[in-house]
Recover the amino acids of this structure.
């Protein structure tokens, strides 16, 4: 191109030199031809570029046939392009976001793999548009006029294609909008702009002028996944985008550089972050978005204003919610729950959340349910204004037509399209008809007629389907049996039949469950019939393969374990002699097993087939070896070629060689995708991951002894899959005659490989036909099948799409479609009368092997029980025989009897039996130890539950003479949970101040940090360097320094002492608002002792913080009350138990006295004998805690319980409560509790020493009768007194107990009140905690702002100091410049201009990433610099030292100027920094004021809550028991019936209050007198202070006068007093004197030298002056010569023109000959230009051709000063020269 331009320039230059019109004519002709060529090229080119921004022509410049992606065909393969033709699509990408759009109210468009489907709503017909990139479609959008729709492609640098509807012609193409994929496109409201949003990795948001195919605005949206972008329908300058965990608000802002996109990310605040799937812009600028949990979020600005939910805190929708429109004053929303709701818009617009939760509750105005299984993801509306019809996308595989009129006549939602949702797990075709069956994890099995393009039947199950196989005809002759595997391990046999002719003929076909069985615990991944159809094999991810016999009912044969999850089962074909099963596992293990013989392999204890032989193969990667070998072969070929071309350069190839690729073995292994048999023992494998791109030929090794998990088997051959290094083959199938191999690729494309018709083995994969059909990102083509007649090809991928292709020409296909459709199998005879098979609904049901194991276990248990019963029976028989022998032996005579030793056969048998018995006994004890321990723990738990929960049992003590009784209290054991909670609270409270302390420490650290003012290293003062003393001081000077130091030290000590005295005095000085401590103490005492009744009366009373009550304090108060109650009850229980013990002792004493009484009474005559008094008894209630629970009682209880359980009618009554009464009745009398009491009384009696009865009787018999009578009476009186004393103690204890009961009742009432208050506080505490947290957050924020404000102020002060320092330095530089002008007054004006000039200065390099700011700074360059530059353009633009001025001085001035400029720049930067800090400070002040307002509001809210809490607590009723005599009324005499208006006061308190009133009056008078005295003293002190201030001012004035008189200025006296002699200063003074003398001598010498130099300078000046005068005269002569030369040049020019007219003919002829030759050259160049123009080479830019430059002419060089760029002299005459 450059050579052509140079040649054209030379030709044009020739014509211009000729000076005639031929060259110009030729030039115009060439320009016209070039313009014509450009117009033709623009008309034919597919890319229309409008750089000027004008609207392009409305004519469609693109052809769809040239854009859409076509099949790839290997060159030379002779495969037709239309080998496969798309017939129909049986689904769509229902889980893709926004995959439903409406065009002209009757056509729905959606994406299905690589196809865009146009679905007619009325006729259900489909039209298709293929992807142009071949990688898929990212997003779609429709123009508001519905005349255009846009398709966003996928792939590398995808494009946006705008189609015109209904012609479907390509209207516009937009390029360079994304790197990989678009995630969303959207038109604005008027359709003039288009917004596109790219996904990873660039995430670009682009606004297009799509009609001009221009980018209007572009920026990066965000660095995470984005879902949607849209224009605001109310403001064309606003956009909104949303995605994963974010929402962003955009604005088209006008800046000085043009329009820009400004984005504002939304802040969730306290609301958890959520993915934003949908949103709606409101007219006032707010945005309503959805959330993952089902509530609506109202955004104002970039923050959440309120969260909207239903009443009661319920979510608006169950699951993800998306708002989608504003209709008739309602905000419409839909959710993943399949419900569409309408919400009142005005209520939402005015919504404001509560303080506690931040949520606003409201109910929907309207609601409709699309379907209970629907999961709505997008919705579109018809364009008619009065229409209420919407079309909804269902993520569960449907498209719905919904009427949202919300009236009584609204029709039900209509399903327009139904398909699978999610990846297609299995697909198979019928072996006798054009039917196919599919299943997915959406729990459905569907059967399609792909001939008539419709769905026949669908059936749903409890679990998702994972495998499916259509049984061959030799298994089911009708061809209607489907074997389906599910994710719970169940296999179901489904029978398909035609319902025509049956009674229940719903639909065209029906699926009936024939049998269900569960062979696996994991998902079933593959099912396959043996080639003869006699055995069914099922594989699962639980690493098992199960075999079944085929028949009317499938019976299990057994299973085998494999090394990994099963991927595929492949039976050997009929061509193989042996019938074997190839098991392909996902972890690259392959197992081959022979077909199990159902006759020889019968299940015994387990179904596992351990004896079934098997062969193993474990794939080892060889891809890196293949790549290495290919690289070596390539290098060898390259070396051979290099040697042939350049034999003399032997080492060139070796130098260019790189290192060979290393051998790599992936770990873990690459997944195995598919495989099939090739020959017996050999098979082909397709691997994924690293090993993709090849088809590996493998065979089983002869050595199978190695562990299968440790095997490493390499393939023996391989075939390269072209263009598929990272695109693995996922599925393989063959047509019926095996002439075509069809492969489903990982990228979603179909590949067809032709095979040799004579040899069906795979020998090469070089020729193939490939078409991309499923999504290139996630649409892996895992299932591909051919129809039974090879006319159709069916594909299913992970994108949920199912496509059918035909192998017939179009006309033959139409004939086939005219048939009635595929043939559905007819039903069997009697099918309607058969019962449906029992299904397995429970996913956790046992599989076949587990059931077999349980049956085997039950069988073993039964066998063991039978064996034990047989042995027991045999032992019983032997025992009976032995007993009979013993009996017969005893009946014999004594001499004939056998002794025991003789009966024993051998003593060793007995010893052995004893040993065995001991061993078995230990074994039994060992086995029973756990049960024994278990029983003991259970008994302990029961005891703790019934007795351990009480501190003591209830004991009742009866009086002896009366029936009065007093009982102990049942005190529950104190739980330790409350104590743990309190300890936990105390521990947590100890750490509350840690963050504040850390914050304070950090702030202090920041404050203590050294201040830096940003000065340079030169400006920072350095510490003084230590100077060694070289001058010695005299003795007199040293003595003077010592005395000065002592005097200064004394003055310093005196000053410190005076300072301490002043500090002490100031510390004792009270503050201005400080109160008298005595008054403060009195106020505190009054607050503590005087009751504050405002808590009950004043509604607006502010509760002090120390009196505020919360749940923890109230709970502690309840605990304290309970503790006091427990203490009182425990004390009373102790007294009652002591009373019981005294009664027991009394009974023992009464029994002793009774015995004595009986002895005395027996010695008296009968008429003197008195009746003995009745002895009191101990009742069971009195010793209940002392009665032990004996083993006998427990055994009796157990017997009664077992007896109760034997009755069938009482089986449900298992409790022990009903057994206590029968137990007590049966135990009764002596066995009851009475014996226990007697036992205890006997224990007391045993402790007493009893004298022998005989001695007592002898002593009594010696006494007289009168003495006996006296003893009888004394014993009776003693017994009576003892009983009376006990009864008195009992009565006293009873009174105490009754008084305590009364007090405890009051305590219970008080506890009830406290509990009511606790409940109330618990209700309010949550709200109070939220407000307290809010207040703490505000306080913390305020403290942070204060600290930031202080830091900002400190930084601002530092900046101001820096500015002042910079100004001082600038003044110093100016002064230094003025000082430098002392010796050069003649050049002052010039030097001043140089000093003040602002030359262009090189910017300092910035950090990377600041280039944009540098560009802005360059644009904002101050224009004054250019003015100053221009002002000095003609005078001193080069900063050259003028003659006569010293160069050093001039350099010094330039350095001063540089220093001044540096200081100016530094000053500017510091001012900018100060301005920034001032703005930051103002912002912080505003923010601080706002935070203070919010903090005050939070405090007010908290105070309001506390006030409301106190008011609610005041409304609680408190029970106060009063006696009638305690009630006094001052108004009425009688006591009214209603006591509600009464005030309850204690009488003592009332008297105290009256006395207090009198005391307060006296105190008031005293305080008045004290106040008057203090006021007078205060006035006196103020006057004294004024007098002292005046005196201090006079003294200060006099002191200043004395200092001015003495020192000449004001000095600090303290510093003056503390000054001491400085040794260094004295030394420096001495040194100074010595150096001054030396310098004076040296100055005299220099003065002599200067005088000599001045004389030499004068002589040189005179010489230079003479030379200058001579030079001036020479310049004048030169000017005169130049003037004459110009005049002569004009004359010569005129003469040359006259000579050229008179040129001779011979010269003209030579010039014409030269022109003719050049014309031929021009003609050749013209043909070359035309040829290059046709190839698109534009030799000239623009519409006009730029003239070539003239030949270069040397110019005279004149030495001048350098000038500014752009100011060159443009006068051409000055550049001419003549020889």
């Amino acid at each position: 191109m450059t050579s052509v331009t140079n040649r054209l320039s030379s030709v044009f230059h020739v014509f211009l030199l000729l000076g005639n019109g031929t060259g110009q004519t030729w030039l115009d002709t060439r320009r016209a031809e070039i313009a014509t060529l450009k117009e033709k090229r623009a008309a034919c080119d597919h890319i229309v570029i409008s750089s000027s921004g004008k609207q392009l022509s409305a004519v469609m410049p693109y052809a769809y046939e040239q854009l859409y992606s076509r099949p790839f065909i290997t060159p030379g393969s002779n495969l037709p392009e239309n080998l496969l033709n798309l017939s129909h699509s049986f689904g769509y990408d229902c889980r893709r976001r926004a995959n439903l759009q409406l065009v002209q109210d009757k056509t729905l468009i959606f994406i299905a793999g690589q196809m865009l489907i146009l679905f007619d709503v009325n006729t259900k017909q489909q039209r298709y548009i293929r992807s142009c990139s071949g990688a898929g479609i990212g997003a779609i959008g429709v123009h508001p006029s519905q005349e255009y729709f846009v398709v966003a492609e996928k792939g590398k640098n995808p494009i946006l294609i705008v189609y015109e509807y209904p012609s479907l012609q390509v209207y516009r193409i937009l390029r360079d909008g994304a790197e990989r994929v678009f995630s969303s496109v959207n038109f604005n409201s008027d359709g003039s702009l288009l917004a596109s949003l790219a996904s990873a990795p660039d995430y670009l948001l682009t606004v297009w002028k799509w009609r001009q195919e221009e980018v209007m605005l572009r920026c990066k949206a965000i660095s995470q996944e984005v879902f949607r972008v849209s224009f605001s329908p109310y403001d064309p300058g606003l956009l909104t985008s949303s995605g994963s965990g974010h929402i962003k608000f955009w604005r088209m802002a006008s800046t000085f550089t043009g329009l820009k996109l400004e984005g504002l990310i939304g802040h969730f605040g306290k609301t958890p972050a959520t993915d934003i799937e949908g949103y709606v812009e409101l007219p006032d600028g707010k945005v309503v978005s959805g959330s993952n949990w089902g509530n609506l979020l109202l955004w104002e600005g970039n923050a959440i204003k309120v969260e909207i939910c239903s009443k009661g805190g319920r979510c608006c929708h169950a699951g993800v919610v998306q708002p989608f429109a504003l209709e008739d004053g309602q905000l419409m929303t839909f959710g993943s729950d399949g419900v569409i709701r309408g919400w009142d818009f005005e209520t939402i617009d005015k919504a404001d959340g509560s303080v506690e939760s931040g949520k606003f509750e409201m109910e929907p105005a309207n609601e409709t349910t699309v379907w209970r299984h629907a999961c709505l993801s997008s919705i579109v509306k018809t364009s008619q204004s009065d229409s209420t019809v919407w079309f909804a996308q269902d993520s569960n595989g449907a498209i719905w037509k919904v009427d949202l009129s919300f009236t009584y006549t609204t029709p039900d939602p209509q399903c327009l399209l139904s398909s699978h949702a999610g990846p297609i797990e299995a697909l198979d075709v019928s072996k006798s008809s054009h039917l196919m069956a599919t299943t997915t994890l959406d729990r459905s099995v569907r059967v399609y007629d792909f001939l008539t393009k419709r769905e026949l039947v669908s059936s749903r199950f409890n679990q998702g389907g994972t495998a499916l196989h259509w049984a061959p005809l030799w298994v089911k002759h009708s061809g209607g049996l489907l074997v389906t595997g599910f994710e719970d391990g169940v296999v179901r046999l489904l029978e398909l039949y035609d319902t025509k002719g049956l009674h229940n003929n719903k639909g065209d076909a029906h699926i009936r469950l024939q049998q269900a069985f569960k062979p696996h615990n994991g998902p079933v991944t593959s099912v396959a019939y043996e080639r003869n159809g006699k055995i069914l094999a099922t594989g699962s991810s639980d690493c098992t393969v199960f075999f079944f016999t085929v028949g009317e009912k499938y019976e299990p044969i057994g299973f085998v374990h494999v090394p990994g999850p099963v991927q595929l089962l492949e039976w050997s074909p009929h061509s193989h002699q042996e019938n074997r099963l190839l098991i392909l596992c996902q972890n690259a293990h392959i197992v081959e097993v022979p077909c199990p013989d159902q006759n020889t392999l019968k299940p015994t204890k387990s179904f596992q087939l351990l004896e079934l032989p098997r062969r193993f193969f474990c794939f080892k990667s060889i891809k890196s070896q293949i790549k290495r070998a290919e690289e070596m072969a390539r290098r060898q070929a390259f070396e051979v070629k290099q040697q042939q071309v350049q034999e003399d350069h032997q080492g060139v190839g070796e130098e260019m060689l790189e290192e060979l690729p290393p051998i790599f073995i992936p770990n873990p292994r690459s997944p195995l995708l598919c495989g099939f048999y090739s020959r017996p023992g050999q098979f082909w494998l397709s691997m994924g991951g690293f090993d993709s791109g090849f088809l590996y030929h493998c065979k089983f090794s002869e050595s199978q002894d190695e562990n299968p998990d440790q095997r490493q088997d390499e393939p023996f051959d391989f075939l390269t899959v072209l263009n598929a290094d990272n695109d693995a083959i996922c599925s393989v199938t063959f047509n019926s005659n095996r002439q075509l191999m069809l492969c489903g690729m990982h990228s979603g494309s179909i590949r067809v490989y032709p095979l040799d018709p004579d040899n069906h083995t795979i020998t090469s994969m070089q020729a193939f036909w490939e078409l991309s059909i499923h999504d290139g990102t996630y649409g892996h083509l895992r299932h591909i099948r051919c129809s039974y007649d090879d006319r159709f090809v069916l594909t299913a991928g992970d994108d949920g799409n199912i496509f059918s292709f035909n192998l017939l020409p179009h006309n033959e296909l139409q004939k086939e479609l005219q048939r009635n459709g595929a043939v559905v199998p007819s039903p069997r005879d009697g099918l309607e009368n058969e019962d449906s098979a029992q299904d397995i609904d429970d996913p956790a049901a046992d599989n076949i092997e587990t059931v077999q194991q349980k049956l085997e276990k039950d069988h073993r248990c039964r066998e063991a029980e039978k064996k034990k019963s047989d042995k027991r029976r045999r032992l019983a028989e032997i025992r009976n025989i032995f007993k009979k022998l013993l009996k017969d032996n005893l009946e014999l005579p004594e001499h004939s009897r056998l002794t025991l030793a003789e009966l024993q056969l051998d003593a060793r048998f007995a010893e052995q039996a004893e040993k065995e018995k001991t061993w078995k006994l230990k074994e039994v004890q060992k086995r029973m130890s756990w049960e024994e321990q278990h029983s003991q723990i259970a008994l302990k738990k029961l005891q703790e539950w019934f007795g351990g929960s009480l501190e003591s049992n209830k004991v009742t003590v009866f009086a002896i003479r009366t029936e009065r009784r007093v009982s102990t209290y049942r005190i529950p054991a104190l739980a330790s949970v409350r104590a743990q909670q309190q300890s936990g609270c105390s521990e947590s409270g100890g750490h509350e101040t840690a963050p504040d302390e850390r914050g304070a420490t950090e702030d202090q650290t920041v404050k203590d940090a050294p201040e830096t003012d940003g000065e340079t290293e030169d400006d920072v003062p350095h510490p003084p360097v230590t100077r060694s003393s070289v001058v010695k001081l005299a003795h007199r000077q040293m003595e003077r320094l010592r005395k000065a130091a002592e005097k200064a030290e004394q003055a310093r000590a005196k000053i410190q002492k005076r300072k301490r005295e002043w500090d002490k005095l100031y510390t004792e000085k009270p503050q201005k608002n400080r109160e008298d401590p005595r008054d403060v103490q009195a106020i505190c005492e009054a607050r503590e002792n005087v009751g504050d009744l405002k808590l009950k009366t004043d509604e607006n009373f502010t509760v002090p913080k120390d009196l505020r009550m919360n749940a923890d304090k109230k709970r502690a108060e309840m605990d304290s009350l309970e503790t006091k109650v427990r203490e009182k009850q425990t004390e009373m229980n102790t007294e009652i138990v002591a009373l019981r013990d005294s009664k027991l002792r009394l009974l023992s004493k009464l029994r002793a006295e009774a015995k004595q009484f009986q002895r005395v009474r027996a010695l008296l005559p009968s008429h003197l004998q008195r009746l003995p008094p009745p002895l009191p008894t101990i009742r069971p209630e009195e010793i209940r805690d002392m009665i032990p629970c004996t083993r006998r009682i427990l055994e009796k209880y157990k017997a009664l319980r077992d007896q109760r359980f034997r009755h069938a009618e009482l089986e449900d009554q298992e409790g022990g409560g009903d057994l206590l009464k029968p137990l007590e009745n049966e135990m009764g009398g002596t066995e009851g509790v009475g014996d226990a009491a007697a036992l205890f009384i006997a224990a007391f009696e045993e402790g007493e020493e009893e004298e022998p009865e005989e001695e007592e009787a002898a002593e009594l018999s010696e006494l007289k009768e009168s003495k006996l009578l006296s003893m009888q009476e004394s014993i009776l009186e003693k017994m009576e007194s003892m009983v009376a004393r006990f009864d008195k103690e009992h009565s006293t204890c009873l009174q105490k107990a009754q008084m305590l009961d009364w007090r405890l009742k009051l305590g219970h009432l008080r506890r009830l009140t406290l509990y009511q208050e606790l409940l109330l506080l618990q209700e309010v505490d949550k709200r109070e905690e939220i407000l307290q947290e809010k207040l703490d957050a505000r306080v913390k924020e305020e403290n942070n702002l204060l600290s930031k404000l202080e830091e900002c102020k400190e930084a601002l002060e530092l900046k101001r100091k820096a500015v002042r320092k910079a100004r001082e330095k600038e003044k110093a530089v100016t002064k230094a410049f003025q000082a430098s002008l002392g010796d050069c007054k003649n050049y002052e004006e010039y030097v001043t201009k140089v000093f003040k000039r602002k030359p262009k200065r090189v910017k300092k390099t910035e950090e990377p990433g600041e280039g944009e700011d540098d560009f802005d700074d360059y644009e904002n360059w101050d224009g004054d610099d250019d003015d100053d530059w221009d002002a000095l353009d003609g005078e001193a633009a080069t900063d050259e030292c003028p003659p006569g001025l010293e160069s050093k001085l001039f350099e010094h001035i330039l350095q001063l100027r540089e220093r001044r400029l540096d200081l100016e720049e530094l000053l500017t930067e510091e001012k900018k920094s100060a301005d920034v800090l001032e703005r930051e400070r103002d912002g912080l002040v505003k923010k601080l004021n706002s935070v203070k307002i919010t903090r005050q509001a939070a405090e007010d809210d908290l105070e309001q809550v506390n006030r409301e809490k106190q008011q609610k607590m005041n409304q609680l009723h408190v029970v106060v028991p009063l006696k009638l005599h305690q009630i006094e009324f001052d108004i009425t005499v009688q006591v009214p019936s209603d006591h509600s208006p009464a005030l309850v006061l204690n009488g003592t308190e009332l008297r105290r209050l009256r006395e207090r009133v009198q005391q307060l009056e006296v105190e008031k008078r005293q305080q008045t007198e004290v106040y008057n005295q203090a006021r007078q003293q205060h006035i006196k002190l103020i006057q004294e202070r004024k007098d002292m201030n005046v005196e201090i001012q006079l003294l200060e004035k006099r002191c200043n006068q004395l200092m001015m008189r003495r020192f000449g200025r004001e000095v600090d006296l303290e510093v003056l007093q503390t000054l001491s002699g400085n040794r260094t200063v004295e030394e420096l003074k001495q040194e100074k004197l010595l150096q001054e003398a030396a310098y004076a001598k040296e100055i005299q010498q220099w003065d002599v030298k200067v005088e000599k130099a001045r004389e030499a300078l004068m002589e040189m000046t005179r010489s230079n002056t003479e030379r200058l005068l001579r030079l001036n005269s020479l310049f004048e002569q030169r000017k005169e010569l130049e003037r004459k030369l110009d005049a002569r040049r004009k004359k010569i020019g005129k003469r040359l023109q006259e000579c050229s007219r008179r040129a001779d003919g011979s010269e003209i002829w030579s010039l014409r000959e030269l022109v003719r030759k050049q014309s031929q050259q021009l003609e050749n160049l013209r043909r070359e230009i035309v040829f290059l123009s046709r190839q698109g080479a534009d030799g000239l830019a623009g519409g006009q051709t730029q003239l070539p430059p003239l030949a270069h002419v040397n110019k005279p060089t004149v030495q001048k000063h350098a000038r500014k760029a752009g100011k060159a002299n443009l006068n051409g005459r000055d550049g001419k020269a003549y020889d």
Summary: The chain has a mean pLDDT of 79. DSSP finds 28 helices and 60 strands in the chain.
